[in-house]
Amino acid sequence: MENKKVIIIGGGMTGLSAGAYLQMNGYQTEIFEMHNIPGGLCTGWKRKGYTFDGCIHWLCGSSPGSEMYTIWEELGLIQDKMIVDHEIFKHTELEDGRSFSVYVNPDKLEEELLKFAPEDKELIEEFIKGIKVFSKIDLPVLKSQEMLNIAELTKFGLKAFPLAKVMRKLGKLSLGDLQNKFRNPFLKANFVRLIGMYEEMPVTALLYTLALLSVKDAGYPIGGSLELAKSVENKYLSLGGKVHYNTKVEKIIVDNCIAKGIELADGSTHYADIIVSAADGHYTIYNMLKGEFIDKEIEGYYNNFKLFPSIMQVSLGIAREFANIPDAITYHFSIDEPLYIDPQNTSNEIGIKIYNFDPTFAPKGKTAVTMYFDADYEYWTELKKENPEKYAQEKDRVAQQVIDRLEKKFGEVEDKVEIWDIATPYTFVRYTNNWKASFEGFIPTVENFNVKMKRTLPGLNNFYMIGQWVQPGGGIPTAGMHGRHLALQLCKKDGKKFITK
Ligand SMILES: Cc1cc2nc3c(=O)[nH]c(=O)nc-3n(C[C@H](O)[C@H](O)[C@H](O)COP(=O)(O)OP(=O)(O)OC[C@H]3O[C@@H](n4cnc5c(N)ncnc54)[C@H](O)[C@@H]3O)c2cc1C
Predict the structure, then answer these.
(1) pTM higher than the cut 0.90
(2) Which residues of the chain carry a pLDDT beneath 70?
């Protein structure tokens, strides 16, 4: 039988992963990507000798032995990477002069929490125990849940047994619910902020992240996000795959309820046996397919699920070192004069990522730093369209404000800034086409965390969706897994033995 041809829309981490696994299994694939580089949101860019990273804070599965690491090995993403494991997840300097560190070592984190809230000993112990129990569980990610056989499910069930007690106590809680359980007034008001996640997220998502960090299985890969993407692109190309850059897909061609091909922005058409969208979900369903293949459930995702917000990334190249700062993934401090980002957003706090741990990001003696702020999608996209000059001025204004606040905090910043760069929500859409410039799709919540989102559309054959828009929480692991799971599914359907070489 001739090898089936597969068109993949989107050359982000999900599209690249799917391409690589499908090529390994004899499918003939082509990726169509609207940007001129691989990676989508998993990206970085160079300015005046500095590298500004747009994504990776922690890479789940960064240490050998886990199933996730196996996926990274198969995709050629991890083998040549040096990994840095930070001591602190998030460090915050508080308004009253104290500071709070989310240590990745659970015992140290317990001590830190008890220092603030001795009266919450019982709750804190439960939380810390949850991290420790999760840290012993290797989630079965090589196959999708529905492909696990009875023996595999039983094996996992037995291994995961200790989780049952944790799940009974914390499994149904959101971070907001957990925060409410503190008796200590400070943690009751600030726990979620100090932890650095969203209040509607399930506690289990935090426990799992902290568990991986505690066993050094969620480190930072030296070289950053774009190097990760290039590694998987290399693997894909070495397997015979083909990527078409600067090609925006406008339409999925459907004939008699069968997805047959794609139409590009330049009007050209391409055909295949199977069409996979690893691109923005909303654009895929409502634009490329004109909303013709949808049901109430899918409509519900886009009407009811909350999105990760649109953000602004401020990046600076500063000709100085930052010594003696906490070894934290992000370092937060409050500012006396709030930052005005746009009519909807001001910030009393700066969360900065100081890349002094990645020598590839700046020449010796210099440092790349990045900061994120919530930013209004409508405001920035409208401004760019209506008044490009003011858009540029506004970016300039925010950059100057940020530099001013950093000068007040650290000193010796203003005169040492060699380059600044601002990515607005408009920039995120321009380069990745993500709906409303959401930086990671749907926020996982207690309600949607276990929803198995549909990866096919009703009434449409030979079509699949994968990636962050069909998995609340998104992330690079979702990208790796979805590519593998799709290849397994197609192999099963086509009676092929699944291979990973
Ligand atoms: C600031 C930030 C920090 C993050 N930190 C982490 C982290 O620490 N760890 C982690 O695991 N994840 C992190 N993420 C999330 C992670 O980057 C994403 O979830 C993941 O990269 C999504 O991959 P994807 O391929 O599914 O989607 P995308 O990256 O959005 O890729 C989709 C691709 O499709 C292309 N495309 C869209 N429409 C079309 C079209 N019509 N035609 C052709 N091409 C199209 C886009 O250009 C893009 O390349 C972070 C993200 C951000 C923004």
Answers:
(1) yes
(2) 1
